[in-house]
Amino acid sequence: MTLLATGICALCLAALHLEARFFAPPLDAPRSPWLSVAGGAAAAYVFVHIFPGLCEGQETLRRTGWALVSVLDRHVFLIALSGLLVFYGLERAALAARGGRSGPPVSPEQQGVFWLHLVSFALYNFLIGYLLVNRVHPGPVSLFTYFAAMALHMAGNDHALRRHFTDDYRKCGRKVLALAVVCGWACGAVLHVHEAVLALLFAFLAGGVVMNTMKDEIPLDGSGNFPAFAAGAAGYAALLLLL
Question: What average pLDDT score do residues 212-240 get?
């Protein structure tokens, strides 16, 4: 039953990538406040649910006795930082190729930027799908909160990728990312890693979520919507604390 539930969640996340453009505002329209609400909810999930869990993950790592653990400290937080840096670098590459946020989508002559993003976000979605099955905290409530947060997060990612790579993303990008979620779930169903590795995977995801949700909210160019972002963060944080 648990595998069936996570499989349905994976298919729903994949369908979101395939059909999100039908529910999202046109790219030339002002950014929808609902995207800010979604970003706030995803950020709340990271700060209220995942980050506290990273402390538990750090203790799990200490108990493994692995050689690297005795050399470095605060391993999961370093991995979270690396996740943030990876997606910050990707965002800067896309903006440079476009000539800024107000520039046109990445041109066909700069396909390398598109493929770099596609491969990176495919691995990112694969990780999201894998963690549907192998979460640090199992159970239906954990599944619901994780699925809801990742669905909202993917809606924001989809909008950003459509803005950067309009035609290429529409033709093949969204299909690859949808497939990556399902493949991640399938891998998670048959392959279970050590709980310490699981903590590291969640840490990388946390860093990526922080960067990918904040990149459209931080710029002071009017693209973000603070009241909507704050409402989404506060509302989802309250839900997590109640469940």
Answer: 78
